[in-house]
Specification:
Elements: E1 3-9, H1 16-29, E2 34-37, E3 40-42, E4 46-48, E5 54-56, H2 57-65, E6 77-83, E7 86-91, E8 94-100, H3 101-107, H4 112-125, E9 128-132, H5 150-156, E10 160-165, H6 171-180, H7 184-187, E11 190-198, H8 202-216, E12 220-225, H9 237-242, E13 250-255, E14 260-261, E15 275-280, H10 283-286, E16 291-294, E17 296-297, H11 300-310, H12 312-321, E18 325-329, H13 331-335, E19 339-342, E20 350-353, E21 361-377, E22 391-403, E23 411-415, E24 423-425, E25 427-429, E26 436-439, H14 450-461, H15 474-492, H16 495-504
Parallel strand pairs: 1-9, 1-10, 2-9, 3-6, 10-11, 11-12, 13-15, 13-16, 16-18, 18-26, 19-21
Antiparallel strand pairs: 4-5, 6-7, 7-8, 14-17, 19-20, 21-22, 21-23, 23-24, 25-26
Helix pairs in contact: 1-2, 1-15, 6-8
Length: 506
């Protein structure tokens, strides 16, 4: 059986996901076979495993940190919000339907057998399981039916490390208040306190550390500084998407729709010197980018109507007619077509006209296509002709079936780890001044060379060159970032004490 340890936080954005990834990396470096686990995650960013199961990307990041293949066992329940009060519920990698918050609250304890079945399978195959909680364990209105914080810690018999965010202020009050709102048996499961995102001299903090230990009876096992690592972190999503970015030599604007998903599809552009990647939600923010990206979305029709109402659709059409590159991914690809049909009411029902920039039509069906794939770009025309024949890998996750003329196909793909024939995918429109492209493939820009060729083409269109473009191998870069994270965890946490907590259990 595996040893277990759980990271919980006093609030959202306390740094649970990043710390869990850091611990996974440290345990892996120390020779242990370690797996992450989060019983329930709520996120629009998802991933498709080798066997076609859907899971949250936060646990994918943690699996990467642990040097193992991601599995839906690490995230048995994923909630993907479809509105302000409803979510698609995904269990063991497959969607089982959409529920309102009230419906799910009443239903969720029925999923405990699924949670424990997934956990027990990891328990049989790993040395250590590093669990992550969600939000705060002190939400007293939710505690009775908790399946992700103390409820999960009890089921896994996992000692808990409680993390507080000092950057937002009130860290001692939040740590103390969280501990005091626990039941006595829950309080006894909290074996260590961690202060995160500290700036300055830790000696100034020392009296407070001693006092919080005295008041709670729980040792402080470390103070982590404000880390500057480039690692996907679900909690920092809002900060990343709303930060103001200086416009650089090549300017790429991603339309930040209300239900945008898989924003990580575009991170690779941030590793190319001279490129600004901006997320925009209004005409004022859009400006005059070299390339506009319509990202994936959990609600294609709703987000299309949102663009229609705020004027972004009309502006995108105008800029496309003037030669600005437009690229759609997944739901964004569907939006670029002539029509979206929803006969089964997967989203809103009926027919909705698209932007009409690509010669494609999409029909929603009840079952998702979830698959990893590999392939290459076909005969790419227009500004990105240099992409022709370039290899790519990624995954698909969508409910729509899109029909398009074969002569307009963008890529040629085939499934990984599954029987299936090579098929044409995506579409392009390079008539006249148009440079419009679309694809269902998440990660379409990640393969080596793709982002650089796109940037070079955008520069050439402006009559410019970027000699000796500074780029980084994306996979190697991520490994370096995980190692930097692990180094900081080792330096600033009492790993000897954490190993003692791990060994002792609860």
């Amino acid at each position: 059986m595996a040893k277990s340890i759980m990271v919980q936080g006093t609030c959202s954005n306390a740094g649970k996901s990043l710390l869990t990834a850091g611990l996974c990396r440290v345990f892996n470096q120390d020779g242990y076979k370690v797996a992450p686990f989060k019983s329930q995650n709520m996120a629009l960013n998802s991933f498709i495993t080798v066997n076609g199961a859907e899971m949250g990307r936060a646990q994918v990041v943690q699996a990467e940190a642990a040097n193992i293949e991601p599995s839906a066992l690490m995230n048995p329940i994923l909630l993907k919000p479809t509105s302000d009060c409803g979510s698609q519920v995904i269990v063991n990698g497959e969607a089982i339907g959409t529920m309102t918050a009230v419906e799910y609250f009443k239903f969720k304890t029925n999923l405990i057998p699924d949670i424990m079945k997934a956990y027990n399978q990891l328990d049989e195959n790993f040395d250590i399981i590093c669990l992550e909680g969600a939000g705060s364990p002190a939400e007293i209105n939710l505690k009775q039916q908790d399946i992700v914080n103390m409820g999960m810690a009890k089921m896994a018999k996992a000692p808990v490390l409680l993390v507080g965010d000092i950057d937002r202020g009130g860290v001692f009050a939040s740590l103390y208040g969280t501990v005091m709102l626990m039941e006595p048996e829950e309080r006894a499961m909290i074996k260590g306190l961690i202060i995160n995102k500290f700036r300055g001299d830790v000696e100034i903090l020392r009296p407070g550390l001693e006092m919080i230990e005295e008041k709670t009876g729980i040792p402080v096992v470390g103070v982590l500084p404000m880390l500057h690592v480039d690692i996907e972190d679900e909690d920092s999503l809002y900060e990343r998407l709303t930060s103001h970015t200086e416009v650089k030599l090549v300017d790429i604007a991603v339309i930040r729709t209300p239900r945008m998903s898989n924003y990580t599809d575009f991170n690779v552009f941030e590793l190319v010197e001279g490129v600004s990647l901006r997320y925009v939600a209004s005409l004022k923010e859009l400006g005059n980018p070299d390339m506009i990206i319509l990202p994936g979305t959990k609600n294609t029709i709703g987000d299309l109507k949102w663009m229609r109402q705020n004027g972004l659709e009309a502006e995108i059409l105008k800029k496309a007619s003037q030669g600005t590159v437009v690229w759609g991914v997944c739901g964004g690809y569907q939006m670029l077509g002539t029509n979206i049909s929803d006969p089964y009411g997967v989203e809103e029902g009926g027919d909705t006209p698209g932007l009409g920039l690509l010669p494609v039509e999409t029909s929603f069906i009840e079952k998702k296509r979830t698959i990893q794939m590999e392939g290459q770009f076909g005969e790419v025309e227009g500004i990105f002709s240099a992409l022709s024949g370039t290899k790519l890998v990624g995954y698909e996750i969508h409910s729509g079936v899109t029909e398009f003329p074969a002569e307009h196909a963008l890529t040629c793909i085939k499934p990984i780890h599954e029987e299936g024939e090579t098929m044409l995918e995506g579409s392009q429109n390079v008539k006249g001044s148009y440079n419009v492209y679309g694809s269902y493939v998440h990660g379409v820009f990640d393969a080596e060379g793709v982002a650089v060729k796109i940037v070079e083409a955008l520069l050439a269109k402006k009559g410019m060159k970027l000699e000796d473009i500074k780029t980084i191998n994306f996979a190697e870069y991520k490994k370096q970032q995980y190692d930097i994270l692990a180094d900081s965890v080792r330096k600033n946490l009492d790993m000897k004490k954490i190993y003692e907590i791990l060994e002792a259990g609860v």
